[in-house]
Structures are given as C-alpha cells and as structure tokens.
C-alpha cells in the first residue's frame, strides 16, 4: 500500500538520550518534511528536504538534525533530548516542494522526554 | 512576523452548514491549504486556493480573498464524521507552510 510510514508509534525517552525517528515513503515524492505538533499551536516545520541529498532548516530546527541519503527515507535525530521536545512528530511528503503540491502525512510519533 | 488566525472551537448541528474562517499575515503568499485532522490521526488534505474565489468540492467549499488575507472553509450537510479539527495553512515566499492552530469542530445530533 502506497503511503508514508513512521516508527516508532510512541516512545518515552530519558532526557539526554539520543533518538532517531524514522520516516519512509514509497510514493517517489521529491520533497519531505518533519513537523512537530503541540497543543494550542499549529504544526511547526523542523526541517525539510526538497530533493534527495539536500536538506534545509524550518521554523524550529534547534536540537534536531536530518539526512536525506535517498528518495524514500528521511530520519529525524534528536542528539540529546530535552523535555521541551515532548511532542507529536509528523513526517510528510509531497511530489515537489511549493505550489499546490499536497502534503501527505505519516501517522505520527508521540514522543515523551522525561 | 507570520501569523495564521482561526477560531479555537466551533459547534454545529448535524445537517447544518458551518463556516470556519482563517485570516493570515505571511511573508509572501503562494497559496492556502485546508486540512482535516481527526483526533489522534494525521492531517489529510481538503483543498487548495491560490486565486481569489470559491472552490467547491462536494460538501466542502473553500474561499480565498488575497487582498483581505482571508479564507473560509464551508461545510454543508454536516455529518457526525465531520467532527474534527480543521487546519488552515499558507505557503509563504519560501514555499514553506505556515499553519494555524486549528479549529476544533464539534457536531451535535
């Protein structure tokens, strides 16, 4: 089934630990995105990639890093987790960046940092 | 700064019509999106407007006025399954989406 998957579904993490959230899409989309969603706030862009091999910083990139080694995968790494990174993380993809290109979202990862 | 404003919560009756407003101030404009998000689920695409006017898609319609920085989502013949949050997002000059906090729509029988 074509779509976008994320792993893990949820995670409880001790502060200071390193964590990688995985994201894979099989739609051959060029652009991919990582958002965080917090209660009362809109989705906020963390990092994005317009095409394989390139990445860019979004609105809230501090404490996060990404890589885009191939078209399908776009992992998000928290080098040293802090409680303020407790959130729901959504990965998304679109055929291309910009214009009216609809973004397709993965099911999300609920992360709790204690 | 960049800002998207939507009402936090709205209540409507099954079978009725509801209009969800969105106003925006962004650095540049490359279109406005509406997404639906059921509780605990991912957002799903509803509509995209880049030119002024009304776009109709079944029971859902979306309107845009670029000069006023304003859009609305109109939902007709409301069904219980329409209970969800509705997210307004604007594509800015960098083609990044700036999102509103969402409007939680409660449908009552």
Structural commentary:
The complex is a heterodimer of chains A (114) and B (109). Chain A is mainly beta and 114 residues long. Chain A contains no helices and 11 strands. Chain A has strands at residues 4-7, 10-13, 19-25, 31-37, 44-49, 56-57, 64-66, 76-78, 87-94, 104-105, 109-113. In chain A, a hairpin with a 6-residue loop joins strand 4 (31-37) and strand 5 (44-49). In chain B, 0% of the residues lie in helices and 57% in strands. Chain B is an all-beta fold. At the A-B interface, strand 5 and strand 10 of A face strand 5, strand 9 and strand 10 of B.
Radius of gyration of chain B: 13 Å
Oligomer description:
heterodimer
Task: Report the sheet with the most strands of chain A, covering strand number, pairing sense and barrel closure.
Answer: 7 strands, mixed
Give the overall form of chain A: globular
DSSP summary: helix tally of chain A:
0
- Roughly what percent helix of chain A? under 10%
Alpha-carbon distance between the two ends of chain A: 35 Å
Q: Give the largest interface.
A: A-B, 22 and 22 residues
Number of contiguous helices of chain B = 0
Strand content of chain A: 35-45%
Class by SSE composition of chain B: mainly beta
The helix/strand class of chain A is mainly beta
What is the element layout, followed by pairings?
The complex is a heterodimer of chains A (114) and B (109).
Chain A: E1 4-7, E2 10-13, E3 19-25, E4 31-37, E5 44-49, E6 56-57, E7 64-66, E8 76-78, E9 87-94, E10 104-105, E11 109-113
Parallel strand pairs in A: 2-11
Antiparallel strand pairs in A: 1-3, 3-8, 4-5, 4-9, 5-6, 7-8, 9-10, 9-11
Chain B: E1 3-5, E2 9-13, E3 18-25, E4 32-37, E5 44-49, E6 53-57, E7 60-65, E8 70-75, E9 84-91, E10 97-99, E11 103-108
Parallel strand pairs in B: 2-11
Antiparallel strand pairs in B: 1-3, 3-8, 4-5, 4-9, 6-7, 7-8, 9-10, 9-11
